[in-house]
Write a structure and sequence with these properties.
This protein has 3 helices and 8 strands. With about 130 residues, the protein is an alpha+beta fold. It has one domain: 2,3-Dihydroxybiphenyl 1,2-Dioxygenase, domain 1. Strands 2-3-4-1-5-8-7-6 form an 8-stranded mixed sheet. The relative contact order is 0.20. The protein binds carboxymethyldethia coenzyme *A. Carboxymethyldethia coenzyme *A (CMX) binds near residues 36, 41 and 77.
Length: about 130
């Protein structure tokens, strides 16, 4: 069902302050930033080879990422896997007993279809599937 790791999401207080480490110290390429209003986050995509890191900065105090930062501080927020068909993957996961946060695909960055698996079903690791 999964084809590859799509990206790793990292929660930060400030994209502007976090980018120099990834871009200048690690040599990753900043591909751009985007606000995802529905999820109250600003995201920055950094690329190295085939791999991507997504920095997540909250855009409002009640953003889920703001809550995450309050509870845990900055750090790894989620791991996203590519699937060919998100709706189909949701059905397959549910049929196998996996609890989903999203039972229907929603829109993520770049207009991609995404869905989150409930961390209770994935050993505490917030897991995203994306198309
Ligand atoms: N890691 C581990 N557990 C997490 C978590 C994380 N990053 N985020 C939330 N949880 C846990 C919560 O603690 C909660 O646990 P309990 O049920 O034990 O209390 C559970 O997951 C559900 O969380 P919630 O906040 O109550 O549920 P919501 O449905 O309101 O939201 C979620 C869940 C994951 C969608 C939201 O917290 C979130 O992180 N939204 C931002 C998503 C994001 O990263 N979007 C960026 C763009 C996406 C992209 O294109 O990649």
């Amino acid at each position: 069902m999964l084809t590859k790791i799509n990206h790793i999401g990292i929660a930060v207080n400030s994209i502007e302050e976090a980018v120099p480490f990834y871009r200048d110290s690690l040599g990753m390429v900043l591909k751009g930033t985007e606000v995802v209003p529905s999820q109250k986050v600003k995201v920055a995509f950094l690329v190295i080879g085939e791999s991507k890191i997504e920095l997540l900065e909250p855009t409002a105090p009640d953003s889920p990422v703001a809550k995450f930062l309050e509870k845990n501080g900055p750090g790894v927020h989620h791991i996203a896997y590519s699937v060919p068909d998100v709706a189909k993957a949701i059905e397959q996961l549910k049929a196998g007993g996996t609890r989903m946060i999203d039972e229907v695909p929603r829109e993520g960055a770049h207009g991609a279809k995404i869905a989150f698996i409930h961390p209770k079903s994935s050993g505490g690791v917030l897991t995203e599937i994306c198309g």
